[in-house]
Design a protein that fits this description.
The protein has 278 residues and is an alpha/beta fold. The protein contains 13 helices and nine strands. It binds ligand C2E and calcium ion (CA) (3 copies). The site of one calcium ion has 4 residues, from loops.
């Protein structure tokens, strides 16, 4: 090899080959996992802290890997997005969660909405709305009981095509929530023009809401802003009673977090719903 600058060596670095190899391996494993149905939807309750009522369930994907065990989404969603495998995966989560939550509704165990995370890749693809309509038709799930969670990073992206997508989803009755709010750099002017219904304040602010004056202040401001804009403020990552009490005092009604329940498998959430009902 000739010595023509750093770039040459950078391009052919051995661990980069390893990176590519690992990626191919993951791609092969994930495609196989979809076919073999190794993915599973977990559910985490969303509650009204004033009434303790379970108002929603968020669908969160898990990978039951045959040798590595249960893998959390942060370890495979980014790769799935890059490989566009998030499209079949996202469709699986949507369809399966509608089917499963419908049975909870039929059995009178639950009467709230179903929150589903949607990746920017799914929205950009073009036929997302068609897929949603088709899936809702097949599962007989009520569109007004669907809430789609889209991260702030996607919403604040320059491409505006997703605004039409969100408007179409809203026209069939679905709700839209902006997820991980405050993490990125949302423009407030922009926020007021978006077709959204709810703001989920990022967990990072709730994490130190009891210790840091700033986090509490930011939460308070977002809460105020949301209410003024006719959006529902929501806090995620509530782990303690102290955090819950602060949120209550700030007038935040709707929360989610380990303090109430961790995400659970379908069978476990079913039993949990039975236990809170009784
Ligand atoms: P997210 O949408 O912000 O989901 C909330 C995450 O915080 C979940 O992690 C949940 O288990 C966790 N969490 C909830 N309450 C608490 C708490 O009190 N303490 C702590 N420490 N954590 C809490 P999870 O399930 O590992 O999901 C991570 C991320 O993966 C999600 O963040 C979401 O961005 C993504 N994700 C999960 N399922 C899907 C999916 O079906 N599609 C897409 N596109 N993304 C998904
Ligand atoms: Ca979410
Ligand atoms: Ca979030
Ligand atoms: Ca997140």
């Amino acid at each position: 090899a000739k010595r023509n600058g750093k770039n040459f060596y950078k391009t052919y670095e051995p661990n980069m080959t390893l990176e590519i190899f690992k990626r191919l391996e993951t791609e092969r494993e994930m495609m196989n996992a979809i076919n073999e149905e190794q993915f599973e939807v977990y559910y985490q309750p969303q509650v009204n802290i004033n009434t303790n009522e379970v108002v929603g369930l968020e669908a969160l994907i898990r990978w039951n890997h045959p040798t590595k065990g249960l893998i959390n989404p942060d370890d495979f969603i980014p790769i799935a997005e890059e490989l566009r495998l998030i499209i079949p995966l996202g469709e699986f989560v949507f369809h399966r969660s509608c089917q499963q939550v419908q049975t909870l509704i039929d059995e009178n165990l639950f009467n709230g909405y179903l929150s589903i995370n949607v990746s920017g890749v799914q929205i950009e693809r073009g036929n997302f709305v068609e897929f949603v309509k088709d899936s809702l038709g097949k599962t007989l799930f009520e569109p007004t009981k669907i809430e789609l969670e889209i991260t702030e990073s996607v919403i604040m992206n320059d491409t505006k095509s997703w605004i039409d997508v969100l408007n179409n989803l809203k026209s069939i009755g679905c709700k839209v929530a902006i997820d991980d709010f405050g993490k990125g750099y949302s423009s407030l002017t922009h926020l007021s023009n978006l077709p959204i219904d709810k703001i989920k304040i990022d967990k990072a602010f709730i994490d130190d809401i009891s210790e840091t004056q700033n986090s509490r202040l930011i939460t308070e401001i977002v809460m105020f802003l949301a209410k003024k804009m006719d959006l529902t403020p929501f806090a995620e990552g509530v782990e303690s009673e102290v955090q819950r009490d602060i949120l209550m005092s700030l007038g935040c009604e709707f929360v989610q977090g380990y303090f109430f329940s961790k995400p659970k498998s379908f069978n476990d959430i079913k039993n949990w719903l039975k236990s809170v009902r009784d």
